[in-house]
Write a structure and sequence with these properties.
The complex is a heterodimer of chains A (311) and B (702).
Chain A lengths: L4 H5 L21 H10 L2 H19 L35 H37 L1 H16 L2 H14 L3 H9 L3 H15 L2 H9 L3 H12 L1 H24 L11 H8 L7 H29 L9
Helix pairs in contact in A: 2-13, 3-4, 3-13, 4-5, 4-7, 4-8, 4-10, 4-11, 4-12, 4-13, 5-8, 7-11, 9-10, 11-12, 11-13, 12-13
Chain B lengths: L6 E10 L7 E11 L4 E5 L6 H9 L6 E9 L2 E2 L5 H7 L4 E4 L13 H12 L5 H14 L5 H4 L9 H12 L6 E5 L7 H18 L2 E6 L2 H7 L2 E6 L2 E7 H6 L4 H9 L49 E3 L7 E3 L4 H6 L4 H4 L18 E16 L5 E17 L3 E5 L6 H10 L5 E6 L2 E2 L5 H8 L2 E4 L3 H4 L6 H11 L4 H14 L16 H13 L5 E5 L7 H18 L2 E6 L2 H7 L2 E6 L2 E7 H6 L4 H9 L5 H6 L26 H5 L2 H9 L5 E3 L2 E3 L16 H6 L1
Parallel strand pairs in B: 3-8, 3-9, 6-7, 7-8, 15-20, 15-21, 18-19, 19-20
Antiparallel strand pairs in B: 1-2, 1-4, 4-5, 9-10, 10-12, 11-12, 13-14, 13-16, 16-17, 21-22, 22-24, 23-24
The chains are: A mainly alpha (311), B alpha/beta (702).
């Protein structure tokens, strides 16, 4: 018999105030508040978000502390290791790696922070509409999602990269999420199908609320917790996809730099000039690790039964 | 008392320790006993501790529970025993029937296997053959048809009622001396409930066991048990024989329960008495009597100390126990139930809405068949489910039509068809004289304002993420009302349904079930509809809360001239509020007429069976009633039944001669007028079955 306390107690519902009093209710926390309470007490969340915040600040303001600007070459000090003048060292033609890493981080951050959530937005809209409208529309969308899933997205990105090269790096912000929304869309679609049978959605329909309004007002807010987690983990996906593409030379093109291009440039000399490889890699690992921590903490806070909760 | 009781519970307390929260005192010092062969009823609302106390007897509480006091079975303490020795006792000497028969059986083993397991667990020497024979004997006892064949069936092949019978068969498998039944009929339809209670009585007679029946329904208690114990907030507040407690309660809580629950005898003639407030939280109890905040008879002394359960009325066989400091006044008759819980006044005539009696809703020959398909890629239709199969009714202004029937009879499909406001598969729906099939989308949106719905489950029916203001004003937002208009209307509506308008900024989880249902009603009223469709609006609410919502609906009808389509399976609730009643069976209406007429002189055998299955919380009536019991369950809706679709279960069919029976099998009866009602039965005039106990004339004689 697996009975939890609550089931046995049949406690009808959280405390509701009597009709007259109004301030008595401060004790009963809403779902949002509850998540925040759980989140607040997890170290992972704080460590992760502080690291992310520091990295963002450094990417924006870091280069200002250096005597060198973007693209400046110090011809007297080419290929030297970290020193007082060049904190992260320089590459073969005298680029300051401290400045380069910060600039690369900027592009990676933009792609991650915009591209990741963008995939979630696509997933939410496609999934919710397919699940709510159902019928032929749902079938077509499901087929399309299945089709996208069987095609390896990385290779498609490789295939269209010649076209990408002509566009600015900003195109990547849109192309990466375009191939990363399918699984989440399926999750949203199935949650929507069960929400559609709920009485409050039916009630809204019988009130004459329009389909679009129902989806944005009743469906999507009720899967919001899923979406927030997905958006966070989507950041990791977008950054690592960008880095991988750039590493192989298909993503960010010179003169633009990203962490991917920096790591690619530094790899040949990884044994002799380790700093070229090390600093961009540390920045990347730190960023992915920190965002992952936040996402992980969020998932545990939203759904305490997933994985191990530390409390 | 010559022999010692079978089970003695002595000052039992159960606490649940919660990390970071106050300890929940689920049971606070209760004492009771069960004699051999006795039938004890424990009555209480959800959260009163009635289930926890019986779990403690079975030793089934989780480890977070701290149990103190003593439980003695045959004079020996159960609390000191370890789980292993308790397991020997469980099932053999004490057995349990759970509330939810759907989850109490293992889906991967046959029913026969599961009963055999229960048998062999306590009697390892039993041969397979003997076990099989015993299984069949048990299944026969609990009334399962074709037991040899059904023993080899899996749980999913049984209906809810049949599964509950299997559970009872398992419970009596080892001839226990004590059966604990925890809400055994709550999840079941009323006709099935009557069957299960019969089976439980039979099981008691066959095994001679004592039975503890835990329930929230005073009616179920009335006809079955010998003694009743009423629980409130973890304590016993009144015990006594069933006659004493139900006919002359001495504790205001028991009185309130009796007056607030719709009752087939009084329904429709006297208004219900709502009990204000809700049960206290068991984590933070105030010092006085836990019922004091809700008690209309409370005096200053009530809030200082909790009254103990004391004996009143002498020590003889008529003795009883009550936990109320004013019990003496009730006993002497200086304070009566009518003083404490007077019936509230209806809406005065001058405030009643005047109506002309125009038809609001006209449903003609409505049909909805769902195709049954097979195959994934190429679907082919292999049959159809006739969810709604040609029903016709109309509702006038300020009229309440009660649509009743067991689950699966097509009630819900009917209301969904009406609410869609789309062209029905077959037949027609006219709202305010407009045929919904002719509507374009803007006219449909306009008409949606005239018909609104209140759902069964107030938790599910309102979006948990919106504030009350947003929820109630949603229908107005759709119609383009301005912000100030909306908030004025929300304040007015909240006031109308008895909520404080200042609470409009709060969220649904801050309200109790009854309050949420009021929010649902406020939202439905936002567009000033003419017709409200009420889908089981009180069945998800606790018994003491129901009365307030029913009274509100009645007042709203009177003051606003609303019409209701009131869908319910609870006939007493329908009796309370409906003017006209339609009884549905397998997608058809089998009887339609004025509520008074249908309830006092039911003519269709199905209506008669439904009515006689409703328990009445009055033991004198319950014990003298004649019952019209139905056999079996609702047939599968996919089945094609020739002739009258009720003849397989019909009690009248069984007593007809062969020539008459032939007519039932051959010809499908249509609705025809018999004694002022429409009845779909060939032999309504010659029907010798009578339902007693709900008859108004009979009641007035007594």
């Amino acid at each position: 018999m697996a009975l939890t306390n609550l089931e046995i107690l049949e406690e009808p519902e959280p405390s509701a105030a009597p009709l007259s009093s109004s301030a008595k209710n401060a004790g009963s926390a809403s779902r949002g508040k509850l998540i925040w309470l759980r989140l607040r007490s997890t170290a992972r969340f704080w460590i992760g978000s502080i690291i992310v915040l520091l990295l963002i600040l450094w990417a924006i303001f870091g280069p200002a502390f250096s005597n060198f600007g973007a693209g400046d070459t110090d011809l007297l000090n080419t290929g030297v290791g970290p020193s007082g003048a060049h904190w992260f060292g320089t590459d073969g033609i005298g680029h300051d790696l401290y400045v380069e890493t910060a600039l690369g981080l900027r592009i990676s951050l933009v792609i991650g922070l915009v591209g990741g959530p963008l995939g979630t937005v696509i997933a939410a809209i496609v999934g919710a509409f397919a699940g709510y409208i159902g019928g032929v529309f749902d079938k077509v969308v499901s087929w399309f999602i299945d089709l996208m899933l069987v095609l390896p997205s990385f290779f498609i990105l490789l295939l269209i990269s010649p076209a990408l090269k002509k566009l600015s790096w900003v195109a990547l912000v849109f192309f990466i999420p375009a191939f990363g929304w399918m699984i989440m869309a399926q999750v949203v679609r199935s949650s929507t199908r069960s929400l559609t049978d709920r009485d409050f959605v039916k009630a809204a329909r019988f009130m004459g609320v329009k389909t679009g309004t129902i989806i944005f007002r009743h469906i999507i807010p009720n899967v919001a917790s899923l979406l927030i987690i997905d958006a966070t983990l989507g950041v990791v996906y977008a950054i690592s996809s960008e880095t991988a593409l750039s590493y192989f030379g298909y993503g960010i093109q010179a003169p633009q730099i990203s962490l991917g291009t920096l790591i690619a440039d530094g790899t040949p000399g990884a044994t002799t000039q380790a700093w070229l490889f090390l600093f961009p890699t540390i920045a990347l690992v730190l960023l992915l690790f920190a965002v992952g921590l936040v996402g992980d903490a969020l998932r545990d806070a939203v759904d305490p039964t997933s994985g191990v909760t530390r409390d | 008392m010559t022999e010692s009781p079978l089970l003695e519970v002595d000052n039992l307390s159960v606490e649940f320790l919660q990390r970071g929260a106050a300890t929940v005192n689920a049971v606070r010092g209760i004492s009771y006993h069960v004699n051999r062969g006795e039938f004890l009823g424990i009555v209480g609302e959800s959260g009163s501790g009635k289930s926890v106390s019986s779990m403690a007897v079975m030793g089934l509480l989780p480890s977070t529970a701290r149990v103190t006091g003593d439980i003695r079975y045959r004079g020996e303490s159960l609390l000191e025993r370890d789980d292993k020795t308790l397991s020997k006792l469980r099932g053999k000497e004490i057995s349990m029937v759970f509330q939810d028969p759907l989850s109490a059986l293992t889906p991967v083993y046959t029913v026969g296997n599961q009963i055999t397991e229960a048998l062999k667990l306590h009697d390892s020497g039993l041969s397979d053959k003997a076990a099989d024979a015993r299984v069949i004997e048990l299944l026969t006892t609990v009334g399962i048809p074709a037991p040899e064949r059904r023993a080899k069936a899996f749980p999913h092949e049984f209906s809810g009622g049949m599964r509950q019978r299997v559970m009872i068969a398992m419970a009596i498998a080892n001839d226990p001396d004590l059966i604990i039944a925890d809400e055994p009929t709550t999840a079941l339809d009323v006709t099935i409930q009557a069957q299960i209670l019969e089976v439980l009585q039979k099981a008691k007679e066959v095994t001679g066991a004592a039975v503890v029946l835990i329930t929230h329904d005073l009616g179920v208690v009335a006809g079955n048990v010998d003694r009743v114990a009423v629980m409130y907030a973890g304590r016993l507040v009144e015990t006594g024989t069933v006659e004493q407690v139900l006919t002359a309660p001495r504790m205001p809580y028991t009185m309130g329960l009796l007056r607030s629950v719709p009752n087939m005898q009084t329904a429709g003639r006297s208004r219900l008495v709502p009990m204000e407030g809700r049960p206290p939280s068991l984590a933070a109890l105030p010092p006085g009597c836990p019922f004091e905040p809700r008690c209309p008879a409370s005096i200053d002394a009530c809030s200082t100390a909790e009254p103990p359960l004391v004996q009143i009325g002498g020590t003889g066989p008529g003795s009883r126990e009550v936990a109320c400091i004013r019990a003496d006044e009730f006993e002497r008759g200086t304070l009566g139930i009518a003083d404490v819980f007077p019936h509230p006044e209806p809406v005065p005539p001058e405030e009643q809405a005047q109506v002309k009696g125009a038809t609001v809703l006209q449903v003609t020959d409505l049909k909805r068949h769902f195709p049954l398909t097979k195959g994934v890629v190429f679907r082919k239709t292999i049959g159809s489910v006739k969810a709604v199969d040609g029903i016709t009714f109309d509702i006038e202004e300020k009229q309440v039509l009660g649509l009743v029937g067991e689950s699966g009879c097509g009630k819900s499909t009917t209301i969904l068809e009406i609410l869609e406001l789309a062209r029905p598969q077959s037949g027609s729906i006219e709202l305010n004289g407009v045929d919904v099939a002719s509507l374009n989308s803007s006219a449909r949106l306009k008409l949606r304002g005239d018909v609104q719905v209140v759902f069964q489950d107030p938790m599910a029916a309102i979006d948990p993420r919106l504030s009350i203001e947003d929820i109630v004003s949603e229908p107005l937002t759709v119609r383009g009302a301005s912000r100030s208009e909306r908030s004025a209307k929300v304040r007015e509506l909240l006031e109308t349904v008895g909520l404080d308008p200042a609470m409009s900024g709060r969220y649904p989880h801050q309200f109790s079930g009854g309050q949420r249902q009021r929010i649902g009603i406020a939202r439905a009223l936002a567009t000033d509809p003419k017709l409200l469709i009420l889908d089981e609006p009180v069945s998800a609410l606790d018994v003491s809360i129901q009365a307030g919502v029913i009274n509100l609906l009645q007042d709203l009808k009177d003051s606003r001239g609303l019409s209701y389509l009131f869908v319910a399976h609870d006939l007493a609730v329908v009796r309370q509020i409906a003017d006209v009643v339609a009884v549905m069976y397998l997608g058809r209406i089998v009887e339609l007429g004025e509520a008074d007429n249908v309830f006092s002189h039911p003519q269709h055998p199905y209506t008669q069976a439904l009515l006689s299955a409703v328990p009445i919380p009055d033991p004198r009536v319950e014990r003298t009633r004649q019952r019209v019991l139905l056999d079996g369950d609702l047939p599968s809706p996919t089945q094609e039944i020739p002739g009258c679709n009720f003849h397989g279960r019909c009690p009248l069919f069984k007593i007809l001669d062969a020539a008459h029976q032939e007519r039932c099998i051959q010809t499908d009866p249509s609705l025809r007028s018999v004694h002022n009602s429409s009845v779909a039965c060939h032999f309504a005039e010659e029907n010798p079955l009578r339902v007693t106990g709900v008859d108004i004339t009979e009641k007035e004689k007594s």
